[in-house]
Amino acid sequence: MRRGSFLPWTLVVVLALASGAARAQIKIGYIDPLSGLMAATGDHGLRELQFAAEEINARGGVLGQKLEVVAMDNKLSPQESASLLTRAVDEGIHYVTQGNGSSVAAALIEAIKKNNSRTPDKTVLFLNYAAVDPDFTNSKCSFWHFRFDANSDMKLQAITSSMVSDKKIKKVYIIGQDYSFGHQVSKTARELLKEKLPKVEIVGDEFHPLAKVKDFSPYVAKIKASGADTVITGNWGSDLALLIRAAKDAGLEVTFYTFYAGVIGSPTAIGEAGVDRVKVVTYYGPNQASAEGVKHIQAFKKKYKPTDDPYTTAMVVELEMLTRAMTQAKSTDPVKVAKAMEGMKIEGYFGEIEMRAEDHQTIQPLFVSTFAKVDGKKVKLGADGTTEFGFREDVKIEGAKTAMATTCKMERP
To answer: pLDDT tens, 244-267?
Structure first.
């Protein structure tokens, strides 16, 4: 596959304008929570998708066509998401994107498979930017699904590898949301800790309802009572921000290993108490961004506000790859586009990214970073609008070293 930078190829998305705009010819459905406790996360993702598209809008779109982002509030419900997919199909939408909640992603994968089998003239392609259940690119892999984030097993490999050198880790507590992703994190964390840190004791492994807990102090009290010095959590959105805030209020002195400490609301909730104690594994490494990456970050903050960090660069990647695939296939037909996207490689903001053909899992660099004070050197950018705190990239794992074997046996049309 040809390689290049993001900007010349990024997909154009045209937001409906009140006057004189060219009529959109291709629609992309954004199915994520835009109300409820997780609304801030969904709203932020929508802004990132819109911005990544708007950067390219002036360049003419893809194959001379314009695209329209259709925002759909799924209220974080798998059932609502399946209904919205039906609506999307009725509206002639052939591409949908989603990322918040693996339970939602699982429902969409199954609904899309059924739709595409029953109505091959109305096929839909699913661009998954953040739902990280490893089954989606293993036992439940689908030709119609492409994942642009590392799965949770890949991220836990990075986390536990970075933990090996820390001799202070003696007792680990695992806490997560009670749905497929949370259970996968628990299962894999246990396995990897046993393999890589056999002397470490797991003193707790607990689940809580997804997006329903408003007070995490009882959970923090259990962690404190366990004597844990380290916590592993896959929590995201309000569940992470409230957990961190409760830990801070209770004076819980542990090291948190997280997947989403950099997302909206979390850095602010962490504050001074999290310095050198909260870690995150992510593909977003702003302090090591390319020139194009820096430009993207700065432009996004200027357009919206300094408190908005464009950490979901998977949005840019999915639009980039989709655009190239359409251009290469000389078609917007989902089947042709999907085949063109398989095996594609691009140069991302933080290193090379490959869409692995056998399971539709992106292979890309990962960072394990620590919450730290901005020093202008190792920590150049504040997070979540703070000027005092950001993330220090401690370890960069190149893409090839993040790749894991897959059990995917994909059925192709």
So the answer is: 999 999 999 999 999 999 999 899
Domain with CATH 3.40.50.2300 in the chain: 26-150+288-363, 153-282+365-402
What's the CA gap between 263 and 260, in Å, rounded? 6
Residue 390, strand partner residues: 372
CA 49 – CA 46 distance, rounded (Å): 5
CATH architecture assigned to 153-282+365-402: 3-Layer(aba) Sandwich (3.40)
Q: Is 101 exposed, middle or buried (0-12, 13-18, 19+ CB in 10 A)?
A: buried
Spatial CB neighbours of 103, under 8 Å, sequence gap ≥ 6: 78, 179, 180, 181, 210
- Distance between CA 96 and CA 366 in Å, rounded? 25
Q: What is the pLDDT of residue 20?
A: 36
Residue 236 has, within 13 A of its CA and on its CB side, a CA count of 24
pLDDT reported for residue 88:
97
Query: What is the share, in percent, of the chain residues with pLDDT greater than 70?
Result: 94
Of 22, 14, 27, nearest to 334 (Cα)? Answer: 27
Alpha helices in 120-170 (DSSP H): 152-163
Cα 210 to Cα 131, 135, 239, 251, 263, distances in angstroms: 14, 20, 7, 24, 17
CB proximity list for 21: less than 8 A, separation 6 or greater: 14
pLDDT at 15: 39
114-140: burial string, b at 16+ Cβ within 10 Å, e else? ebbeeeeeebbbbbbbbbbbbbbbbeb
Q: Burial, 183: exposed, middle or buried (Cβ in 10 Å; 0-12, 13-18, 19+)?
A: middle
| C-beta of residue 314 within 8 angstroms of C-beta of residue 366 | no
User: Residue ranges of the chain with pLDDT lower than 50?
Assistant: 1-22
Assigned token pair, 22: 């060219």
Superfamily the domain 26-150+288-363 falls into: Response regulator (3.40.50.2300)
Task: Tell me how far apart the alpha carbons of residues 46 and 52 are, in angstroms, rounded to a whole number.
Answer: 10
Radius of gyration of the chain (CA): 21
